[in-house]
Amino acid sequence: MSEATVWSDLPGELLDHIANGLFSKVELLRFRSICKTFRSAVDSDKNFLDHLKRNRRRLLSPYSSGKTCSLSPAAFYRVVLSSYPDKGWLIKLQDAYVSSQKQLLSPLSRFSIKSSGKTLDLLEFTVSEIHQSYDVEYLYYNSTRASFNFARVVLAEDFVFIVDNYKKIWLCNSNESDSHWVRIMDEEVKLFSDIVFHKGYMYALDLTGAVWWISLSEFGIFQFGPSSTPMDYCDIDECKDKRFVEYCGDLCIVHRFSRKFRIKRVDIDMTVGFKVYKMDEELVEYVEVKSLGDKAFVMATDSCFSVLAREYYGCLENSIYFTEQNNVKVFKLGDGSITNMVDSSFQSCFQMLIPPLV
């Protein structure tokens, strides 16, 4: 039987790496109070360089009609009561333009949440960053900013990759103000639904569900794995969207499908389900993931990721949280049902999205 690791025996390099991911000076104080080794390994006036680099706004080269644009980061955080850290809430924050304060966003979209005037007391709550997302904005009328509403924006090293509204991939160097946007495509495949930076590599997902690898040195694109993911939707009308999600270390592909419903004499596409696939390395093909186990997927408009359901209030295992027409919904893989947040009788399963500071 292997011996348990003593906290004070952890190497200084690892402690410094952990400290770089902390959210605030209060968390740093808690970290340094664990033991003498932790205090000596990390300075009390440490700057959060990694956090600042990921979350800083960057001016980008003009995109589309010469509009000045910038990279707008946001981050997802798990917020827990320091006295009860087992369960928490999911929030999304970004830096405000005109002050050093944080702006609270709707977790599944980029819409701002009106401030209630409450403050987040970091002595009462513990905040941990769990995921990063990005948007590209442009200068609009009267010095305001608006989003391009790209399908996806990813930062890989200093390169900004986007999937635009026409399903084309573009990139530019965020460190070079005169860097032009360059299109990434293959001779045969030119349109894509998603991109992701996974374990140091950039991947793209085309409209058939095939995965492509993008070289960060030459910016060439090469097919990676099978030519497509299964499309056996039976009586489903349309595969509405395909997205990457990191799940248990694997890169999964999520198909979102819809049907047309006639509501008040208008035909509206409504999501009716999801299917999840991952690569079977032995069979060299994509296989359907029937259950997410104790995990849940968060399908935000600007990013997709998985969470451990039991760590969040009301979060349902084996489910997918998503937004549609400004409504938050949850799809249960077990029975294929969809619950809408506006239905007050099911509020408990959305509790993780309603922190006490709202």
UniProtKB/TrEMBL annotation:
Residues 10-51 form the F-box domain. It holds the Pfam family Beta-prop_KIB1-4. PANTHER family: F-BOX PROTEIN, F-BOX PROTEIN SKIP23. This is F-box-like domain superfamily. It comes from Arabidopsis suecica (Swedish thale-cress). The lineage of its organism: Eukaryota, Viridiplantae, Streptophyta, Embryophyta, Tracheophyta.
